């Protein structure tokens, strides 16, 4: 509804509305969602009265319901015109040190409400992205894995490595650097290092 809400700013709602301008407002809902509502409005009765008075100046019969957990309020007006007036003039205003934002509520589909009072599941447009298909498509065949490439010259060079010496495994070229492996000698005392003792299992009592 952003494109619609931007278009209503070009209409002078303070004066008499022409028929062409009224046609532009027919697609608007008659309800607003107010966000960033101050906590004092939910707990203080006087603060709630002042908050409701600011919206009832545009429609004395407006119905206001509160969503404390979300710090929001839903206001249903008698017509889209009064809802548009309140949205234009009160959006961004400060109430008890909180700058509220006013948005048009998404209108409900009357056809679906008449057939079923419950919300319908969304259309499965992207259901294929949530879970894979139960079976592969027709004509699908698995691709055989390629055989691994074994460099026997590299294996032979690694087998001939000796500790304490530098071995050129691959000579350098114009496009690739050379590979030189330096073999470390065995550390002193490695063979005499004590082994870790395994923890014995407890004896099971019969």
From TrEMBL:
CDD domains: RRM_RCAN_like. GO terms for biological process: calcium-mediated signaling. This is Calcipressin. It comes from Capitella teleta. One of its GO terms (molecular function) is calcium-dependent protein serine/threonine phosphatase regulator activity. Belongs to the RCAN family. PANTHER family: CALCIPRESSIN, PROTEIN SARAH. Gene3D superfamilies: 3.30.70.330. SUPFAM superfamilies: RNA-binding domain, RBD (SSF54928). It comes from the Eukaryota. GO terms for cellular component: cytoplasm; nucleus. Signal peptide: none annotated.
């Amino acid at each position: 509804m952003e494109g619609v809400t931007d278009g209503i700013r070009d209409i002078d709602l303070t004066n008499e509305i022409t028929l062409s301008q009224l046609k532009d407002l027919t697609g608007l809902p008659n309800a607003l969602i107010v966000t960033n509502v101050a906590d004092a409005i939910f707990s203080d009765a006087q603060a709630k009265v002042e908050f409701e008075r600011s919206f009832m100046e545009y429609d004395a019969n407006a119905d206001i319901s509160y969503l404390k957990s979300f710090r929001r309020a839903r206001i249903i007006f008698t017509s889209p015109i009064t809802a548009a007036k309140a949205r234009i003039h009160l959006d961004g205003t400060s109430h008890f040190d909180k700058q509220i934002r006013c948005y048009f509520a998404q209108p409900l589909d009357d056809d679906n409400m008449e057939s079923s009072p419950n919300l319908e599941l969304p259309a499965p447009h992207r259901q294929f992205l949530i879970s894979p298909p139960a079976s592969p498509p027709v004509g699908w065949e698995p691709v055989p894995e390629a055989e691994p490439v074994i460099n026997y010259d590299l294996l032979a060079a690694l087998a001939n490595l000796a500790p304490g010496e530098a071995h050129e495994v691959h000579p350098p070229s114009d496009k690739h650097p050379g590979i030189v492996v330096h073999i470390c000698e065995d550390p002193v005392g490695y063979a005499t290092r004590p082994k870790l003792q395994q923890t014995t299992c407890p004896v099971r009592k019969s």
